[in-house]
Amino acid sequence: MKRKTALTASALAALLAVPAAAPASPGGWGVTTQQMVIHVPRMTVTRTTIVTRSFPRRPPPMVFTERKADDCVKLDKIVGFAVSPGDTIELMLSDGKRLRARLGSNCPALGFYSGFYVRPHKDGKMCAKRDSIRSRSGGTCSIDSFRALVPAR
Q1: Contacts of 133 by beta carbon, 8 Å cutoff, 6+ apart
Q2: Are 103 and 87 in contact (CB under 8 A)?
Q3: Is the pLDDT of residue 59 over 90?
């Protein structure tokens, strides 16, 4: 059995080693040549980016404590505001500080979500117990006091 297998394997090898006869060409030469060239562009990977989907933990909300503040704030220092629960508005200042403006009674701060107006005084400041703010809907609220907000430790 081993001898038959070896004989078959050697016969196959001999067949593969012998080139196939080329068909005769019309010119009588009997040789044909075919060539195929495939160009593969060279590519170098220099950086690999892997994108994964993850849900990072949200940092805990910052907790602020109130401290005493001046009665006035310069209007040009106010860069933003946020409505707080109750009758208060938090003012963000250009130097990174925050102030809480306590509004008069019967003045819900929820009406200020889209902005408010302040009539500027000659000194360019908004002061507690002197100035009032007007909502876009037309309501007017007096400012009772300002409190500085500092991060709790």
Answers
A1: 89, 101, 103, 112, 116, 117, 118, 126, 140, 141, 143
A2: yes
A3: no
